[in-house]
Design brief:
Elements: H1 17-28, H2 51-62, H3 74-91, E1 97-101, H4 104-123, E2 129-133, H5 138-147, E3 150-154, H6 165-171, E4 176-182, H7 194-203, E5 207-211, H8 218-224, E6 241-245, E7 257-261, H9 264-268, E8 272-274, E9 282-284, H10 294-330, E10 335-337, E11 345-350, H11 361-373, E12 379-381, E13 390-394, H12 403-418, H13 427-434, H14 443-453, H15 466-474, H16 477-491
């Protein structure tokens, strides 16, 4: 009988290591820079010489160690206990316990799981609710969708962008399993009234999680550097858990985060254990099972290297950069800073030429495009529930020396943006979009809308994003989410 034809090779012939590494380096040349202080989102740069090399060497030393079973690899328990101990000392209370996770999303997912299972086991709640301010991170909605928890979203104060403690308290019910506060919120960098929210949660027997993924490591060191920082951590009565990302202002490599619980009894609800199969008994503290201990090791090494005084000095540099940037922004005509930024994050909007002082979305997005052409990445954020569209900046120690140049280029870019034709959305198109059911759209219809929006096949983006984002801003949330999911799907398509 004839043999089957040979299968097509999945991989090309092997290549020398130097060639493979050269190709990887070439791919990186098309990315935004992660060092140097010109990318004001997604990256956290301590600006310390040798820190990247230390993290890489520490990762390499533990890359092949499996963090699944600390009884086989006891070094994993030692490193994690050291890290959790440091976080608890900085943010905790006597008896606080925690886990090392892959990032803020996993920490938040586990916090919601803990609250759900605690509500079921301790309070007999079969349909738990999650009460959160509108500015809470999208990861909470992701966790609610994954875990079958009902989110209850409470509007925030439109002037301060902070959670409204009274409105949060009024939203609590007998089904509330978890209440959320941010320290600070990602969108605007402001700290919610944690003490008031936690007290209301405790009064209803609910747990309270503080999302300090961004601020958890820098806020205590800002306080140590002499800045005023309101209480937000596990020292606040009623706060039962807190998340802090070490790959943000602790400057470890991504992904490294910690979820901290007030006590071991609460942490128990975070764990997953299963013995009902013929393999080894499974106990997973986190979502991941098998995982490299490399990320744990590099975070441990970075914290040990920088140390208490080092983090205090770095926090002071961020505060200095923030002061200078806020002063410059507030002195720029037509620019309005949102809220009272507290921890290295700044959001500002741009006002139109009218007498009403209203934010101008088209002008704002033209400004973002002009700044990108000058080599700066500022993150556009669209309008939401009465909160204005804005540009978001994440400040790090590496940005201290860039603030003056940024402000100078911002003035140039703003002048250029004002000379451009405004980008508008056809009202008839907006009305048509409002009537579309995103669940009923077929592939051809989605492709047509993506093409109209300027989101090309294969993840291709236009040279200027203002027309795309103005259109997205006008779309209903459901349609916006469907289009964005389809666009990302087109990026990750072979």
């Amino acid at each position: 009988m004839p043999s089957d034809p040979p299968a097509e090779a999945a991989l090309p012939d092997g290549r020398p290591a130097a060639d493979v590494l050269a190709e990887l380096r070439a791919l990186r040349e098309g990315d935004a820079p992660t060092r140097g202080g010109r990318t004001f989102a997604y990256v956290y740069d301590a600006g310390l010489e040798g820190l990247d090399e230390l993290a890489a060497e520490a990762y390499a030393a533990f890359a092949t160690v499996n963090g699944l079973d600390p009884t086989v690899f006891p070094s994993v328990a030692r490193l994690e206990n050291d890290l959790i101990g440091a976080v608890a000392a900085l943010l905790g209370a006597p008896g606080a316990q925690g886990s090392f996770t892959s990032g803020g999303t996993e920490s938040i997912l586990l916090a919601v799981k803990t609250a759900r299972d605690h509500a079921r086991a301790v309070r007999g709640i079969s349909r738990p609710q999650l009460v959160l301010p509108a500015t809470a991170h999208a990861a909470f909605h992701k966790a609610a969708a994954y875990l079958g928890v009902e989110p209850v979203v409470v509007p925030v104060d439109p002037d301060t962008c902070r959670a409204d403690a009274d409105a949060m308290a009024a939203a609590l019910t007998d089904r509330t399993a978890l209440v959320v506060a941010s320290a600070p919120s990602y969108a605007h960098g402001v700290v919610d009234p944690v003490a008031e929210i936690a007290a209301a949660a405790a009064g209803r027997g609910a747990l309270c999680h503080v999302d300090a993924c961004i601020g958890g490591w820098i806020l205590p060191y800002l306080r140590r550097a002499g800045r005023q920082v309101q209480p937000f951590d596990l020292s606040v009565p009623g706060v039962t858990s807190l998340s802090v990302d070490l790959h943000k202002y602790a400057y470890a490599d991504k992904g490294a985060s910690v979820l901290l619980h007030r006590d071991a009894e609460l942490r128990r609800h975070q764990y997953f254990a299963h013995a009902g199969w013929p393999g080894y008994p499974v106990v997973n503290p986190t979502v991941q099972g098998t995982k490299s201990a490399g990320l744990l090791a590099q975070a441990w090494a970075v914290l040990r290297h920088v140390g208490e005084d080092g983090y205090t000095a770095l926090a002071g540099r961020v505060a200095d950069a923030s002061d200078r940037l806020l002063t410059g922004l507030r002195a720029t005509g037509g620019v309005r800073v949102l809220g009272d930024p507290a921890a290295g994050l700044v959001a500002f909007t741009v006002l139109g030429p009218g007498d009403d002082g209203a934010p101008d979305l088209s002008l704002l997005l033209h400004l973002a495009d002009e700044m990108r052409a000058l080599g700066w990445y500022l993150q556009p954020q669209l309008s939401f529930d009465g909160l204005p569209p804005n540009l978001h900046l994440t400040l790090t120690p590496a940005t201290v020396g860039q603030v003056d140049a940024l402000l100078e280029d911002l003035g140039t870019a703003l002048t250029a943006a004002r000379s451009l034709e405004p980008v508008t959305v056809d009202p008839a198109l907006a009305e048509l979009a409002a009537g579309l059911d995103p669940r009923a759209l077929g592939p051809d219809e989605v492709a047509a809308v993506l093409a109209f929006a300027g989101l090309g096949e294969g993840g291709a983006l236009p040279g200027r994003m203002a027309p795309v984002l103005v259109l997205l801003d006008a779309l209903p949330d459901g349609l916006k989410e469907r289009l964005l999911a389809e666009f990302v799907g087109s990026v990750f398509r072979i």
